[in-house]
């Protein structure tokens, strides 16, 4: 499966509210880089660490579904960059954010995830 199809299926799993299905697209040696100054910012190495970080982020919201809109996609042979609008809620708080996630794919599995926030301070405050 090529990079574009891998990320399409990955995004569809998230869109169905099925994180466990999405996590199956991670390679065992996946690396995710989260920007910011919050407690979860930094480099997360290996499938268990990446999943734990994502679950910790979701725990700071009202849970799935987080609304995700794909604004645009840039695709190469090995990578997909997605410009996204995401809306997360927690009780009476709402975070409406824009970000770019860049995924590198090898053999149908995601091996690298780099996240770039449009308004990092808002994200840091919400997910602190």
CATH level-3 fold name? Nuclear Transport Factor 2, Chain: A
| Count of alpha/pi helices | 4
- First-last Cα distance: 37 Å
Average predicted confidence as pLDDT: 92
In CATH's first tier, which class applies? Alpha Beta
Tell me about the biggest sheet?
Answer: 6 strands, mixed
Share of helical residues? 25-40%
Q: Tally of extended strands?
A: 6
Protein structure class: alpha+beta
InterPro entries: NTF2-like_dom_sf, SnoaL-like
Organism: Nocardioides humilatus
Protein name: Nuclear transport factor 2 family protein
Domain SnoaL-like: 7-112
Describe the SSE topology:
Layout lengths: L2 H13 L3 H5 L2 E9 L7 E4 L1 H13 L7 E9 L3 E12 L2 E14 L2 E9 L2 H8 L1
Parallel strand pairs: 1-6
Antiparallel strand pairs: 1-2, 3-4, 4-5, 5-6
Describe, in plain words, how this protein is organized in 3D.
- 30% of the residues lie in helices and 45% in strands.
- It has 128 residues and is α+β, with helices and mostly antiparallel strands.
- The chain has one domain (3-127): Nuclear Transport Factor 2, Chain: A.
- Strands 2-1-6-5-4-3 form a six-stranded mixed beta sheet.
- The model has no long low-confidence stretch (mean pLDDT 92).
- It holds the Pfam family SnoaL_2.
Identify the notable features of this structure and list them briefly.
single chain, 128 residues, alpha+beta, Nuclear Transport Factor 2, Chain: A, six-stranded mixed beta sheet, globular, SnoaL-like
